[in-house]
Amino acid sequence: MGDVVAGGCILALMEVVLVVGLRARRRAVLAAAASWHGPRRADIAAPDAAWPGLAPWADREFATAARRLRLDADAATTQLVAVQLQLLSLHEVLRGLAGEPGPDRIVDALLRHCRDRCDTVEVRCYLTADPGRLLLRRLDLRAGNPPPDQLEMARPTQGGLASVLDDLASLLIGDPVRHPLVPGEAARSGEGYMAAPLVGAARGEVQGALVVFGTVGGGGLEEGTRVWMEALGRAAGAVLENAALYGRLNAEHTLRDGILNNLASGLIAFGARGQPLFHNRAARELLGLDEAAVARLTPAKLCPDLECPDSPLAAVVAGGSTLASAETFLVCPGRSPLTVRLTLAALPPPVGGDRGLMCVFDDLTARRAMEAQIRQLDKLAAIGRFTSSLAHEIRNPLAGIAAGIDYLRRTGGLGGEQQEYIRIISQEIDRLDRIIRHLFTVARPGYLMIRTLSLAPALERVLATLGPAAAQKRVTISTGPAGGWRELECDEDQIQQVLLNLIKNAVEAEQEGGEVRVLIGTGAREGEACGSPGGEAAGVVIIVENGGETIAATDRERIFEPFHSRKPGGTGLGLFVSYNIVKQHGGLLAPMDSPPGRTRFRLFLPFTQPRTPEVA
Known about the structure:
- By secondary structure, this protein is of the alpha+beta class.
- The chain contains 15 helices and 18 strands.
């Protein structure tokens, strides 16, 4: 509003200055006419006495010529003032239109200016939209001063509007009945219209049309207004064209940023001097940096391999290649290096400039962990098949040995020492038979007897079973949090066996007088801790923690292999059997990162089980 008032004051001041200039010019013209008229009359009257009779006629002619000269000067000066005022007005309008944000605001300002400038009852602005469609925004002043309304319509092929849009020429129509603006539109008595095209300056394409309705002639819509509207249409068309171009550019920029920021791959573009030009959200998250830290990066700081001559990536930096890809690592300040697949591409250089670099990288950490897990599963499967076959071959002769030992025991006649050896041999035969049964259980897992239940009773039975052994070592077994159990689908007997193996191993590994902690909660399939009992979760999480020797990194890869045991006298089958039971349930059993002197295992079991042939 302040800009409009200031613009009006400037126009009024300019009008006063121009009127004063007009009066000064008029006085100068009259003085020139008087100075020409006096000497000319003396020259005519001097030669002889015949001229005095013509003097009155000469005076009249000189007066008439002076009057015509004065009128012509007044008309020319007035026209000059009018043109200058129109130019000043258009200049102010252009400044106002260019400052409006978006086409809708520009059109509204255009409608208001026409309302204030012309003696009109209605102002319309038609804008080209989709092919064959127009957007109409109008300001109807017949019923007061309402806000502009908008509607969409088909582009007419006949009538005054079609002529303006197709021929890019203005119209001044006094009889809209014979020459309607839009075919079929009702004309109002005594109202004509003036229409001017809105033409862009860059490509000369029509942006729409500006139409005012009112009385034609008599100080209303006249040729002078038509000239002004043509100039306004060209100026407003250029502003609308620029606004449309800016809108498309902004939409493309938003789309580009949306695509790049939703990529799973990290992307950083560097300029010719090594300064970051653009980076996406994945780059910040993978590197663990904020925007300010990314802005301080250079290609060499991000990936030291770029300066290694043997790296294929260095060829892109040196300009010998435009594209290269390699597995490497990226430096993450405050964190361990990130193993990635890095693709380096040369950016097209600007005119007369050097080219930049675009780095696209994918985190290989999860992929490498998955590949290691797959290799581990394949190895376990191969070992399982081998041990199953070996157990089958051992079981037959073992049965014969057991029968022979039983025969010797029943025959009698053996001394005390011989009886002791017979007892030891029988115990070892029983131990080998248990091992073989375990191996058969793993090699040929049976159907899961799935029920929906809470594992709290199963844990209570396990604690009751291990109570005497824990009391003998003065080891405390604590559980928590209270009420942390949620029901899930599982085979209760098999999961109880898993809990028994895990907690038994923890009690045996714990030092005398120590504590074994069993944490219960919910969470995701992979994670570092239990979640809360409620909220979004994928399954039940149980963490078994004990003191003692921490699992070495070399043992982690073999801890679930059969016959691999870290305790004296262990068979190495407890974790192997437990791992396969959990796997059959679609869960995950894995050791966790632990502080020195502590060992933690994380058991995840999903809430629901898929209906497969292994699930009953």
